[in-house]
Amino acid sequence: MSTPQKPIDSEFGAASTAAEVIRGISLKGKTAIVTGGYSGIGLETVRVFVAAGAHVIVPARSRTKAGDALKGLRDVEIESMELSDPKSVNDFADRFLASDRALPILVNNAGIMAPPLQRDKRGYELQLSTNYLGHFQLTARLLSALRRAQGARVVSVSSWGHRFSPFHFEDPNFERREYNPWLGYGQSKTGNILLAVEVDRRYARDGIRAFSLHPGGIVETGLVVHVPQAELRAVGAVDESGKPIIDPDKGFKTVQQGAATTVWCATSPQLEGKGGVYCENVDIAPLAVERSGNVTLGDSTEQNGVMPYAIDPESAQRLWGLSEKLTGVSAK
């Protein structure tokens, strides 16, 4: 049931917005969960889902911050959850499952990028813990609700940055190798892609299809807080005054454009019967051509596609087993 990793000519593109790709699609009566749904592209995803009729649940580290950001939006439910805290993830999942609701849409959106070395309470590197392991645990815990939908989609927001690193199975938490924030980020985002591959392989028979995606470079999200302004200027993401430069053809997008591929993956009828693929610019992405030399942020303006190691089915199965071990969650 695997889907070829090649574009399908969706008729959308890099400049398409989330509102454009969902036009004509009704989500009335459907429930969606969007992690990180109170800032950046997550917030735009929530806005568009609500406008299409969905009831959206936003698990948030800060209920106050989420409440301020989501004020005025109808049909939005704010819940407490910290992705790097396994008890918090379990508590949220337990509360949702107790409601006996089906879950047609799960968007694993929240994330952090390239911070100095930090670890969670278990000693796990924080990008791995937040970007990948927390979302693995959440997805695994909500499988029964996803099955109940009888047609669900799990969408994991990855990044072009998966090119910085494959998954390092021998030392995922930088215990025996020198920490590099970009290697940590790349590993976690490769994990998001492999998660989609394995969720789709395991659960397509249950009506659960999974996708991963690169949203584009969106400076306005705040995700770049740890990236020096000089580096952002060097790659053409901001001008001399620090103002974001919008150039979708080079990957630099508005929040509305950045949320488009997420929304398309979660709702588009063009993806019926498909899954396990990595998407970008509102289409299934091509397979990337491997190149020699170090990967830099500047490469993102002219290279696209997904690295072969990020969609390797054997790596996806291996990571699933490691994830069960690291989180203590056994998915059935």
The major sheet is characterized as: 7 strands, parallel
Put simply, the count of helices is: 11
CATH superfamily membership: NAD(P)-binding Rossmann-like Domain
Overall shape: it is: globular
Radius of gyration: 18 Å
Key structural traits:
alpha/beta, Rossmann fold, 35% helix
Explain this structure to me?
The chain is α/β, with parallel strands linked by helices. It has one domain: 3-Layer(aba) Sandwich (Rossmann fold). 35% of the residues lie in helices and 11% in strands. The protein is built from 11 helices and 7 strands. The chain has a 7-stranded parallel sheet with strand order 3-2-1-4-5-6-7, sandwiched between helices. Strand 2, helix 3 and strand 3 form a beta-alpha-beta unit. Helix 4 packs parallel to helix 5, helix 5 runs parallel beside helix 7 and helix 7 crosses helix 11. The radius of gyration is 18 Å and the shape is globular. The two termini are 19 Å apart. The relative contact order is 0.18. The model has no long low-confidence stretch (mean pLDDT 93).
